[in-house]
Amino acid sequence: MQAGEIIEWVAARLGLAASMIPDGGVIVGAAGTEVHGILVTWMATAEVLSKAAGLGCNLVVCHEGFRFEEIPQSPIYRWTAPPAEQPYERPDHPNSVRRRLAEQNNLVVVQIHYGLDRLCIYDDFMPQLGITQVIAGGGYEKVYVLPAPQTADALARHVAGKIGLDCVRLTGDGRKMIARVGNLVGGAALSSNRYWMRKQIEYGAEAIICGESDECAEIFAQEYNGTVLIETSHAASENIGLRRFVRMLKDAYPDLPCEFYDIRRPYHFVCAADFKTQKPP
Ligand SMILES: [Fe+2]
Predict the structure, then answer these.
(1) 124 and 229 share a domain?
(2) Can you give the pLDDT at residue 277?
(3) DSSP letter, residue 189
(4) Containing domain of residue 18, as a range?
(5) 20 to 30 Å CA-CA from 83: which of 94, 222, 265, 281?
(6) Are residues 62 and 162 in the same domain?
(7) What is the CA(64)–ligand 1 centre distance, in A?
(8) What is the CATH number of the domain that holds 96?
(9) Cα(65) to centroid of ligand 1, in Å?
(10) Tens of pLDDT, residues 46-96
(11) Do 138 and 228 fall into the same domain?
Protein backbone atom coordinates (compact mmCIF):
# COMPACT_ATOMS: atom_id res chain seq x y z
CA MET A 1 0.00 0.00 0.00
CA GLN A 2 1.21 3.49 -0.82
CA ALA A 3 0.56 6.29 1.65
CA GLY A 4 -1.73 8.32 -0.59
CA GLU A 5 -3.98 5.31 -1.23
CA ILE A 6 -5.53 5.60 2.22
CA ILE A 7 -7.40 8.71 1.10
CA GLU A 8 -8.78 6.82 -1.91
CA TRP A 9 -9.66 3.90 0.38
CA VAL A 10 -11.77 6.16 2.61
CA ALA A 11 -13.31 7.98 -0.34
CA ALA A 12 -14.28 4.67 -2.01
CA ARG A 13 -16.18 3.59 1.12
CA LEU A 14 -18.15 6.83 0.94
CA GLY A 15 -18.84 6.39 -2.77
CA LEU A 16 -16.83 9.54 -3.52
CA ALA A 17 -13.78 10.39 -5.60
CA ALA A 18 -10.75 11.26 -3.45
CA SER A 19 -10.88 14.78 -4.90
CA MET A 20 -14.36 15.22 -3.35
CA ILE A 21 -13.02 14.94 0.23
CA PRO A 22 -12.69 18.62 1.01
CA ASP A 23 -10.09 18.96 3.75
CA GLY A 24 -6.83 17.24 4.54
CA GLY A 25 -4.51 15.30 2.23
CA VAL A 26 -0.84 14.34 2.28
CA ILE A 27 0.65 16.98 4.61
CA VAL A 28 4.24 15.71 5.02
CA GLY A 29 6.14 13.21 2.86
CA ALA A 30 5.32 11.64 -0.47
CA ALA A 31 2.02 10.00 -1.45
CA GLY A 32 3.95 7.26 -3.24
CA THR A 33 5.82 6.08 -0.11
CA GLU A 34 5.39 2.36 0.60
CA VAL A 35 3.66 1.93 3.97
CA HIS A 36 5.17 -0.41 6.62
CA GLY A 37 2.75 0.44 9.41
CA ILE A 38 -0.06 2.90 10.18
CA LEU A 39 -0.67 4.90 13.33
CA VAL A 40 -4.13 6.52 13.54
CA THR A 41 -4.72 9.40 15.91
CA TRP A 42 -6.93 12.40 16.51
CA MET A 43 -4.04 14.90 16.20
CA ALA A 44 -0.46 14.30 15.06
CA THR A 45 1.28 15.87 18.05
CA ALA A 46 5.05 15.64 18.61
CA GLU A 47 4.42 12.81 21.08
CA VAL A 48 2.38 10.90 18.51
CA LEU A 49 5.06 11.30 15.83
CA SER A 50 7.77 10.03 18.19
CA LYS A 51 5.57 7.06 19.09
CA ALA A 52 4.94 6.25 15.42
CA ALA A 53 8.68 6.28 14.71
CA GLY A 54 9.31 4.02 17.72
CA LEU A 55 6.68 1.55 16.54
CA GLY A 56 7.98 1.49 12.98
CA CYS A 57 4.75 3.00 11.63
CA ASN A 58 5.78 5.27 8.76
CA LEU A 59 2.24 6.50 7.99
CA VAL A 60 0.48 8.71 10.53
CA VAL A 61 -3.20 9.34 9.80
CA CYS A 62 -4.67 12.23 11.78
CA HIS A 63 -8.13 13.74 11.87
CA GLU A 64 -7.36 17.30 12.94
CA GLY A 65 -5.01 19.75 11.24
CA PHE A 66 -1.24 19.19 11.37
CA ARG A 67 -0.28 22.86 11.52
CA PHE A 68 -1.52 25.50 13.95
CA GLU A 69 -2.60 28.36 11.72
CA GLU A 70 -3.08 31.95 12.86
CA ILE A 71 -4.69 35.00 11.33
CA PRO A 72 -2.36 37.96 10.80
CA GLN A 73 -3.51 40.81 13.04
CA SER A 74 -3.84 44.19 11.36
CA PRO A 75 -1.92 47.15 12.88
CA ILE A 76 -5.09 48.63 14.45
CA TYR A 77 -5.17 45.73 16.92
CA ARG A 78 -1.49 45.90 17.78
CA TRP A 79 -1.68 49.15 19.86
CA THR A 80 2.02 49.73 19.39
CA ALA A 81 3.82 49.93 16.07
CA PRO A 82 4.52 46.34 15.05
CA PRO A 83 8.12 45.36 14.49
CA ALA A 84 9.05 44.46 10.95
CA GLU A 85 7.99 40.84 11.32
CA GLN A 86 8.41 38.26 8.62
CA PRO A 87 6.17 35.21 8.57
CA TYR A 88 8.24 32.67 10.44
CA GLU A 89 8.07 29.89 12.99
CA ARG A 90 10.74 29.56 15.65
CA PRO A 91 12.47 26.17 15.94
CA ASP A 92 10.52 25.46 19.14
CA HIS A 93 7.11 26.38 17.60
CA PRO A 94 4.94 23.21 17.53
CA ASN A 95 4.68 23.42 13.74
CA SER A 96 8.47 23.35 13.44
CA VAL A 97 8.89 20.56 15.98
CA ARG A 98 6.24 18.41 14.29
CA ARG A 99 7.62 18.87 10.79
CA ARG A 100 11.18 18.18 11.95
CA LEU A 101 10.13 15.00 13.74
CA ALA A 102 8.18 13.78 10.73
CA GLU A 103 10.96 14.50 8.27
CA GLN A 104 13.79 13.13 10.43
CA ASN A 105 11.88 9.86 10.88
CA ASN A 106 10.77 9.59 7.23
CA LEU A 107 7.11 9.68 8.25
CA VAL A 108 4.24 10.44 5.92
CA VAL A 109 1.46 12.42 7.59
CA VAL A 110 -2.02 12.26 6.04
CA GLN A 111 -4.92 14.27 7.42
CA ILE A 112 -8.44 13.01 6.69
CA HIS A 113 -10.99 15.28 8.32
CA TYR A 114 -14.34 15.32 6.59
CA GLY A 115 -13.80 11.83 5.16
CA LEU A 116 -13.47 10.28 8.63
CA ASP A 117 -16.33 12.40 9.99
CA ARG A 118 -18.55 10.76 7.40
CA LEU A 119 -17.05 7.28 7.48
CA CYS A 120 -17.19 6.67 11.21
CA ILE A 121 -16.84 9.62 13.61
CA TYR A 122 -20.27 11.27 13.42
CA ASP A 123 -22.44 8.16 13.40
CA ASP A 124 -20.45 6.22 16.03
CA PHE A 125 -20.90 8.84 18.78
CA MET A 126 -24.54 8.37 19.74
CA PRO A 127 -24.58 4.54 19.62
CA GLN A 128 -21.69 4.62 22.14
CA LEU A 129 -24.19 6.38 24.44
CA GLY A 130 -26.94 3.85 23.70
CA ILE A 131 -28.85 6.37 21.57
CA THR A 132 -29.67 4.99 18.14
CA GLN A 133 -33.06 6.19 16.92
CA VAL A 134 -32.89 9.16 14.55
CA ILE A 135 -36.15 11.10 14.36
CA ALA A 136 -35.16 14.15 12.30
CA GLY A 137 -32.41 15.57 10.14
CA GLY A 138 -29.57 13.99 8.20
CA GLY A 139 -25.81 14.43 7.89
CA TYR A 140 -24.55 16.66 10.70
CA GLU A 141 -28.16 17.65 11.59
CA LYS A 142 -29.44 14.45 13.19
CA VAL A 143 -31.79 14.54 16.17
CA TYR A 144 -32.45 11.32 18.13
CA VAL A 145 -35.06 10.17 20.60
CA LEU A 146 -33.78 8.80 23.91
CA PRO A 147 -34.80 5.26 24.94
CA ALA A 148 -36.64 6.97 27.83
CA PRO A 149 -37.03 10.63 28.87
CA GLN A 150 -34.74 11.68 31.71
CA THR A 151 -33.47 14.84 33.36
CA ALA A 152 -30.56 16.67 31.77
CA ASP A 153 -28.47 16.00 34.89
CA ALA A 154 -29.11 12.26 34.67
CA LEU A 155 -28.37 12.28 30.96
CA ALA A 156 -25.09 14.13 31.56
CA ARG A 157 -23.99 11.55 34.15
CA HIS A 158 -24.90 8.75 31.75
CA VAL A 159 -22.90 10.37 28.94
CA ALA A 160 -19.83 10.90 31.15
CA GLY A 161 -19.89 7.26 32.21
CA LYS A 162 -20.26 5.92 28.69
CA ILE A 163 -17.34 7.98 27.40
CA GLY A 164 -15.15 7.32 30.43
CA LEU A 165 -14.88 10.94 31.56
CA ASP A 166 -14.91 11.92 35.24
CA CYS A 167 -17.00 15.00 34.46
CA VAL A 168 -18.74 16.82 31.61
CA ARG A 169 -19.93 20.43 31.31
CA LEU A 170 -23.66 21.10 31.38
CA THR A 171 -25.23 24.35 30.20
CA GLY A 172 -28.84 25.04 31.15
CA ASP A 173 -31.37 23.58 33.58
CA GLY A 174 -30.23 20.18 34.84
CA ARG A 175 -33.82 19.38 35.97
CA LYS A 176 -35.26 19.78 32.46
CA MET A 177 -36.79 16.55 31.13
CA ILE A 178 -35.10 15.51 27.89
CA ALA A 179 -36.59 13.21 25.26
CA ARG A 180 -34.88 14.40 22.06
CA VAL A 181 -31.16 15.10 21.66
CA GLY A 182 -28.92 16.47 18.94
CA ASN A 183 -25.48 15.13 17.99
CA LEU A 184 -22.72 17.72 17.68
CA VAL A 185 -19.69 15.46 18.04
CA GLY A 186 -16.17 16.92 17.83
CA GLY A 187 -16.08 20.66 17.23
CA ALA A 188 -19.53 20.91 15.66
CA ALA A 189 -20.93 22.81 18.70
CA LEU A 190 -18.38 25.62 18.44
CA SER A 191 -19.77 29.04 17.52
CA SER A 192 -18.00 28.81 14.17
CA ASN A 193 -20.36 25.91 13.32
CA ARG A 194 -23.55 27.54 14.63
CA TYR A 195 -25.58 26.40 11.60
CA TRP A 196 -25.66 22.78 12.81
CA MET A 197 -26.72 23.73 16.33
CA ARG A 198 -29.50 25.97 15.04
CA LYS A 199 -30.78 23.25 12.72
CA GLN A 200 -30.87 20.63 15.49
CA ILE A 201 -32.77 22.98 17.82
CA GLU A 202 -35.23 23.68 15.01
CA TYR A 203 -35.60 19.91 14.45
CA GLY A 204 -36.70 19.62 18.07
CA ALA A 205 -33.56 18.84 20.08
CA GLU A 206 -34.18 19.65 23.76
CA ALA A 207 -30.55 18.91 24.60
CA ILE A 208 -27.45 18.60 22.46
CA ILE A 209 -24.62 16.26 23.32
CA CYS A 210 -21.40 17.62 21.90
CA GLY A 211 -17.65 17.30 21.84
CA GLU A 212 -16.30 20.82 22.35
CA SER A 213 -18.24 24.08 22.64
CA ASP A 214 -17.62 27.66 23.76
CA GLU A 215 -19.45 30.11 25.99
CA CYS A 216 -21.06 32.12 23.18
CA ALA A 217 -22.49 28.90 21.71
CA GLU A 218 -23.66 27.78 25.17
CA ILE A 219 -25.53 31.06 25.67
CA PHE A 220 -27.02 30.77 22.16
CA ALA A 221 -28.35 27.30 23.03
CA GLN A 222 -29.80 28.49 26.33
CA GLU A 223 -31.50 31.46 24.71
CA TYR A 224 -32.93 29.32 21.91
CA ASN A 225 -35.76 27.41 23.62
CA GLY A 226 -33.66 26.72 26.73
CA THR A 227 -31.68 24.03 24.91
CA VAL A 228 -29.35 22.14 27.23
CA LEU A 229 -25.77 21.55 26.10
CA ILE A 230 -23.78 18.58 27.42
CA GLU A 231 -20.13 19.03 26.52
CA THR A 232 -17.80 16.01 26.65
CA SER A 233 -14.46 16.48 24.87
CA HIS A 234 -13.53 17.14 21.27
CA ALA A 235 -10.89 14.40 21.25
CA ALA A 236 -12.75 11.84 23.37
CA SER A 237 -15.94 12.17 21.34
CA GLU A 238 -14.08 11.61 18.05
CA ASN A 239 -11.79 8.85 19.34
CA ILE A 240 -14.81 6.52 19.40
CA GLY A 241 -15.11 6.57 15.60
CA LEU A 242 -11.35 6.64 15.06
CA ARG A 243 -11.01 3.37 16.99
CA ARG A 244 -13.49 1.79 14.59
CA PHE A 245 -11.50 3.18 11.65
CA VAL A 246 -8.48 1.26 12.98
CA ARG A 247 -10.57 -1.94 13.13
CA MET A 248 -11.68 -1.35 9.54
CA LEU A 249 -8.08 -0.90 8.40
CA LYS A 250 -6.99 -4.05 10.23
CA ASP A 251 -9.70 -6.03 8.44
CA ALA A 252 -8.75 -4.58 5.06
CA TYR A 253 -4.96 -4.85 5.51
CA PRO A 254 -4.39 -7.80 7.87
CA ASP A 255 -0.65 -7.92 7.15
CA LEU A 256 -0.07 -4.25 7.88
CA PRO A 257 0.53 -3.18 11.52
CA CYS A 258 -2.12 -0.60 12.44
CA GLU A 259 -2.13 1.15 15.83
CA PHE A 260 -4.32 3.72 17.55
CA TYR A 261 -2.93 6.55 19.69
CA ASP A 262 -5.45 7.84 22.22
CA ILE A 263 -5.23 11.64 22.64
CA ARG A 264 -6.98 12.57 25.90
CA ARG A 265 -8.92 15.71 26.85
CA PRO A 266 -6.04 18.14 27.42
CA TYR A 267 -7.36 19.86 30.59
CA HIS A 268 -8.69 19.05 34.02
CA PHE A 269 -10.75 21.08 36.49
CA VAL A 270 -9.40 22.72 39.64
CA CYS A 271 -12.16 23.75 42.08
CA ALA A 272 -11.40 26.79 44.22
CA ALA A 273 -14.26 26.19 46.66
CA ASP A 274 -12.89 23.10 48.37
CA PHE A 275 -9.28 23.16 47.16
CA LYS A 276 -9.72 19.66 45.81
CA THR A 277 -7.82 19.12 42.60
CA GLN A 278 -9.08 16.49 40.24
CA LYS A 279 -6.43 14.25 38.84
CA PRO A 280 -5.71 14.78 35.15
CA PRO A 281 -7.61 12.28 33.01
FE1 LIG B 1 -12.86 17.52 15.14
Answers:
(1) yes
(2) 53
(3) B
(4) 5-112
(5) 94
(6) no
(7) 6
(8) 3.40.1390.30
(9) 9
(10) 999 999 999 999 999 999 999 999 887 777 777 766 666 666 789 999 999
(11) yes
